[in-house]
Amino acid sequence: MSTTAKPRKPEWLKIKLTTGEPYREIKDMMRARTLHTVCEEARCPNIYECWANRTATFMILGDVCTRACRFCAVRTGLPTELDLQEPERVAEAAEQMGLRHCVVTSVARDDLKDGGASIFAETIRAIRRKLPLCGVEVLIPDFQGDWDALRTVMDAKPDILNHNVETVERLSDRVRAKAKYRRSLELLRRAKEMNPKIPTKSSLMLGVGETLDEVRQTMDDLREVGCNILTLGQYLQPSPAHMEVVRYVHPDEFAELKIDGLARGFSHVESGPFVRSSYHAHEQVISATAAEAGKA
């Protein structure tokens, strides 16, 4: 039994709950269309703020994941759901919400031949048919290194291709199930190779035992494969069954890491305790696009 005292949750990690009319409208709409959101399934701390602002991250391919990452609250098991009509329902929901930027992610579906890549691609196309001016960002799994599956997604031309390394290389095998740090980097490298014009993005959660030097090394690794956008946030233990928080990172450290990231050439760095991969996603795109234009 560990004798190490658990760190106490600091004052800066308090969340303002906002469950007004927009929040209830989105919740009802998702249930009516039999859709899932990562906001709910992963117990995101920003759900109240984002839903109050009528933004959400759709989670396709069901709500049961074939992997059991130690940080993630999404259910694990053998999925039985594969709904070919899901892309159209996601597009209808995005249209009803009047989105300018739509984020689509999924559970890992290692049981499917293409890992669900074809459903990602059709969801991108369905949103474009309904909302031609809406930006579409996809947060994809690693498809177990199936680069043909990656090409299926890239050929649908998302506006942002996002894949999270989640943590530093030393901790990757312990924190992530089946995913490999170097394979994630290779996915980002190949995505950029397939279409250099599509910005790539990745995310790190802090407070799981990494050092700041390791975070900076991960930044260097991501920049080496051409990653454009980086998000950094605090890991929060979703339940007692998940891995514990090792440390709560102070907002000042997040601010310093943002400066480090921008100095390394990222077009945009979103860094703070409550930051998650799709937090302020539309604003990230605007900032990154402006930064890239300034480099030209």
Structural account:
With 296 residues, the protein is α/β, with parallel strands linked by helices. It has a single domain (16-295), classed as TIM Barrel. The protein is built from eleven helices and ten strands. An eight-stranded mixed sheet has the order 1-2-5-6-7-8-9-10, sandwiched between helices. Strands 3-4 form a two-stranded parallel ribbon. The longest helix has 15 residues, at 281-295. It starts with 20 loop residues before the first helix and ends with a helix. The model has no long low-confidence stretch (mean pLDDT 84).
SSE pattern: HEHHEEEHEHEHEHHEHEHEH
Task: Tell me the radius of gyration.
Answer: 18 Å
Overall pLDDT confidence:
84
List segments where confidence is low: pLDDT < 50 over at least 5 consecutive residues.
none
Outline of the structure:
The protein has helices at residues 21-32, 38-41, 47-52, 86-97, 117-130, 147-155, 169-175, 181-194, 212-224, 251-263, 281-295; strands spanning 36-37, 57-60, 64-65, 75-76, 101-106, 135-139, 160-162, 200-206, 229-234, 268-271. The protein is an alpha/beta fold and 296 residues long.
